[in-house]
Amino acid sequence: MVIQTLELTKKYNRKVTALNHVSLSIDTGVFGLLGKNGSGKTTLMRILTTLLTPTDGKVSILGMDAVKANQEEIKRNIGYLPQEFGFYKDFTVYEIMQYMCFLRGTEKAMQKALIHDALEQVNLLDHSKKKYKQLSGGMKRRVGLAQAIMHSPPILIVDEPTAGVDPEERINIRKLLSTYAENHAVLFSTHIVEDIEYTCNKLAVLDGGNLLFTGALDELLHLADGKIYECAFDSLAEFQEFEQKYKVISFKRDGSKTKAIAIVESAKLTNATPYRPSLEEAYVYITTRRE
Ligand SMILES: Nc1ncnc2c1ncn2[C@@H]1O[C@H](COP(=O)(O)OP(=O)(O)OP(=O)(O)O)[C@@H](O)[C@H]1O
């Protein structure tokens, strides 16, 4: 396993439990991390990169315990795109990449080729002379991604790389991550379920610091089998009454009729027909079910 966590717990100020006994195994490929705002995704990624110390539990990276003595070696093996990648606004894209090489102690003779290759991968070669302040939000994310992959680290950890990126670029970023993951481990945190659907083999779902699910996409879909139904209503009043009792994921109106996708669990309703859930619907199911 490339990354392993065992019963990982993080408390902030002894009050907020950001991670609660989270055990995960991550190998080569794209591993998705899905969760609402505040579910603990960034905390987990910061612990894996050794930027944050856990309150309890264990982390192993490439077989090394994430203890102080191994931190420098672990950092060298991880490329990280943080949620907020900011930089000196008057630096050009090229200068940012040079600066990153300097921080890493990259030999001068190797820098040019490394920077060229990384900028090419994120489609920024034509913008290398632009200042950071002149870049769009999506371009800034791509600079962040370029610096993270530049030294081909065995582990790439990316915190919402597709946030604020237009659909075409989002597709490019997904393709880049999929290609990179052919022989590296990529941990991909996102709010966008489609990102996971198109790139990941496995995923984890966090909610309020708790690990609700970890496994293959198919297994998550399987959990929602027989729980989600398409329900038809002839009047608005009928639909409103239903909405009081069941979790409605989506609905469409057509005149007085309404069709809804809802979590009905095992209830036997005459107006409900079994429905094959999408990943997004299965995700809603596991984040709302209470056992
Ligand atoms: N430095 C901090 N001090 C106190 N509480 C914090 C700190 N950082 C995060 N938290 C809290 O820990 C919890 C998890 O936060 P975290 O940023 O890890 O979630 P997230 O899933 O990354 O959220 P988002 O999707 O909004 O980025 C939240 O309740 C958050 O308010």
What does this structure look like?
The chain is an alpha/beta fold and 291 residues long. The chain folds into two domains: 3-215, 3-Layer(aba) Sandwich (Rossmann fold), CATH 3.40.50.300; 224-288, no CATH class. It has helices at 41-48, 71-76, 93-104, 108-121, 137-149, 167-180, 193-199, 217-223, 236-245, 279-288; strands spanning 3-12, 16-26, 29-35, 56-61, 64-65, 78-81, 155-159, 185-190, 202-207, 210-216, 228-233, 247-254, 257-263, 272-274. It has a six-stranded mixed beta sheet with strand order 6-7-8-3-9-10, with helices on both faces. Strands 2-1-4-5 form a four-stranded antiparallel beta sheet, with helices on one face. A four-stranded antiparallel beta sheet has the order 12-13-11-14. Strand 9 and strand 10 form a beta hairpin. Helix 3 crosses helix 4 (108-121), helix 4 (108-121) crosses helix 5 (137-149) and helix 8 (217-223) packs across helix 10 (279-288). It is globular. The two termini are 31 Å apart. Bound molecules: adenosine-5'-triphosphate. Adenosine-5'-triphosphate is lined by residues 12-13, 16, 18, 35, 37-43, 83.
Task: List its salient traits.
6-stranded mixed beta sheet; binds adenosine-5'-triphosphate; single chain; 4-stranded antiparallel beta sheet; 291 residues; nucleotide-binding; 35% helix; Rossmann fold; 2 domains; 14 strands; 10 helices; alpha/beta
Q: In short, what is this structure?
A:
With 291 residues, this protein is α/β, with parallel strands linked by helices. Helix content is 35%, strand content 30%. It has 2 domains: 3-215, P-loop containing nucleotide triphosphate hydrolases (Rossmann fold), CATH 3.40.50.300; 224-288, no CATH class.
